[in-house]
Amino acid sequence: MTRIYTLSLDKTIFYVGQTEMFLHARLTAHLGAHPELKKLPNWVKNCIVISEIEQCNPSDALKRERYWIRFYKAQGHFLINKNIYNMLQKYEDSWLV
Prior knowledge:
By secondary structure, the chain is of the alpha+beta class. Helix content is 49%, strand content 25%. It contains five helices and three strands. A three-stranded antiparallel beta sheet has the order 2-1-3, sandwiched between helices. The longest helix has 15 residues, at 82-96. It is globular and about 35 Å long.
């Protein structure tokens, strides 16, 4: 199963992702690799929370991740994976032509 998850800080969601890893391992990977998160001081990194929002079949994971990205953007959350969202929008827009 694939997990769809959020990263949040002080109850503000800033990232939506998918993984087949354990959530704690995925959070550790984010903190060490993502350019925006690497810049944060350690005390802030320790406050970041990873939360599972759903489980789905791997074949549905991208669709479900897109759904949640749109959901949280519509709620007013500024997501740092906005470049992924913009890429998905362009991809989907090409289907409408």
